Amino acid sequence: MDCEHRPACPGCPLAETPYADQLLAKQARLARALAPYGHLPEAPAVVGSEWQEGYRHRLKLPVASAPSRAIGLYDREGGRVLDTPNCLVLHPELRAALGAVRAWLADRTDVASVDLRRSHATGQLQLVLALPGGELPGGREALAGLVAALPELTSVAISRADPSGKRVMGTRPRVIHGRPWLDERVGNTRYRIHPGAFFQADPRQAERLHAMVRAAVGEAATVLDLYAGVGAYALALAEGRERVVAIEEVPDAARAAADMAPPNVEVRTGRAEKHLGEESFEVAILNPARRGADPGLLARLATAAERLVYVSCGPETLARDLDLLSAHGMRVRGIEAIDLFPQTGEVETVVTLERGRARTEWSVPGGRARTPWLGEASGVVGHPDRALALVLGETPVSGLAAGSRFKRIGMVAGHSLVRVELAGPLAAALALFSRNGSPVAGADPATARFFAERAGLQRPFVHVERVGAATAPLHGDLVNALRALGADDKTVARAGALP
Predict the structure, then answer these.
(1) In 3D, which of 119, 128, 112, 202 has the Cα closest to residue 172?
(2) Which residues lie below 8 Å from residue 189, measured CB to CB, with a gap of 6+?
(3) Hey, which residues does 60 pair with through a beta bridge?
């Protein structure tokens, strides 16, 4: 893709790569995420998109302060908003509409960001403006010139800009002009999209994704749709089913789904972890955010559904969650991948799982290894002789911890990767690290959220490497956590990852 805003704009990192090679790169990313676990399937070829340019039907962009008033992504250093009026991945009509918004903003200094969406079904536009305090000076009347320039603009909302400037988009959008939703369609299914709601960037390619999910669900009479959003799958699958239950945390999205739901679809508002109950379903669909699903919810789903269909935009957290599900008896039976974001490294994956034998232990050289998802550390079963841990901060290069010798084998994102030769209990050695100000990553309440969001770490970073003659390679979730934290290949290899 020959874009005038490259290479300064970081938004399309694969823009200079031929599309066939882009698909191979996406497959390689998925393969790299799955491989450390050993038991997960190989990555499939990625289904490409016909629309490699002009596919985005939504933009979310910061607006620079005066005098530039640039609208675009931040530069690679994150300090300057780039002006990208001719972004080639925006749908041409969306790009043209942005030009009108840009002209309207020329005389304003109060808008922090714009969220502009175009309906593929109707061509209508929805705009959300983020402003300090969530108020537009002049109110609805201030929009007169913009509405006149954009007849397709049927919904305008105002949100409260993030005072810290860390978040591009605002919060609590409220409509001040037009309708409270935008009509959209994927295939034969109609949706209502409220301001700020998630929906696939390209409804045309989303139709192919929906077809994959529909095939995976099959003829199931009862379906559970978790992280349901505006009802993308629940509404599309409703016809011919006995019962469909959709659970969505965001009230506006849940209301939009309920507004369009036929009688056999029940929509519940709240966190999936709290609204599942003790019901059972033939199939459960889950489509969580990039950080993956809650471990407790996954354990519950393993008994609540006969089959699962997991839709993921994050290969690394997907692999972790598939491993967790295997510990609870849900085994992978099929995997497909599709490209929803050409010119980027992103890849969407659809995985089908069925009940099978739980994978809690397996053979390793000299002994047995165990899953980390049932309360114990990953690695070799038995009394540990050597363990690996990631602890906060910078430890000495080597030393003693409760009588056990340790050696720091690497620094990862400012934290210490330590190998401990145990002369006593592992817990005692780790407790001493904690007392000295270096608790285990993932076990420290003050930093657990950081490691979960940044590295996909859902448990303490502790792995039993050796018991007697038995050894176990570093568990897959820890391999991917190190990579997410920026560890180089040599450090990951020293940590004992599978080659």
Answers:
(1) 128
(2) 210, 235, 236
(3) 115
Q: Please, which residues bridge with residue 401 across strands?
A: 404
DSSP letters for 31-84:
HHHHGGGSSSPPPPPEE--S-SSS-B-EEEEEBPPTTT--BS-B-TTSSSB---
Q: What angle do CA 485, 488, 491 make, to 5 degrees?
A: 100
Residue the block writes with tokens 């938004």: 11
Q: Are 296 and 272 in contact (CB under 8 A)?
A: no
Distance CA 235, CA 493 (A): 46
Strands (E), 415-461: 415-421
Phi then psi dihedrals of residue 305, to 5 deg = -130, 145
pLDDT in tens, 115-165: 999 999 999 999 999 999 899 999 899 999 999 999 999 999 999 998 887
Neighbours of 132 (CB within 10 A): 13
Using alpha carbons, select from 151, 154, 146, 149 the residue that is nearest to residue 177. Answer: 154
Q: How many CB atoms are closer than 10 A to CB 56? A: 22
Position of tokens 């994959």?
Answer: 212
Q: Which two tokens stand for residue 101?
A: 């918004």
Q: What confidence tens digit (pLDDT) does each residue in 271-283 have? A: 888 888 788 999 9
Among residues 157, 232, 226, which one has the least CA distance to residue 201? 232
Domains of the chain (ranges; CATH) run 20-50+202-355 (3.40.50.150), 56-183 (2.40.50.1070), 366-494 (3.30.2350.10)
Model confidence pLDDT, tens digit, residues 159-214: 999 888 778 889 999 999 999 999 999 999 999 999 999 999 999 999 999 999 99
The neighbouring-strand residues paired with 361 are 370
Beta bridge partners of 418: 389, 408
The two tokens of residue 329 are 């008896």
What residues form DSSP beta bridges with 399? 406
Q: What local confidence, expressed as pLDDT, does residue 385 receive? A: 96
Please, which pLDDT band fits residue 497 given cuts at 50, 70 and 90?
confident
Residue 242 CB partners (closer than 8 Å, separation 6+): 221, 222, 264
Alpha-carbon dihedral of residues 240, 244, 249, 254, nearest 10 degrees? 50
SS3 of residue 223 by DSSP: strand
Best CA proximity match to 109, nearest among 63, 78, 170? 63
Please state the separation of Cα 401 from the chain's center in Å.
37
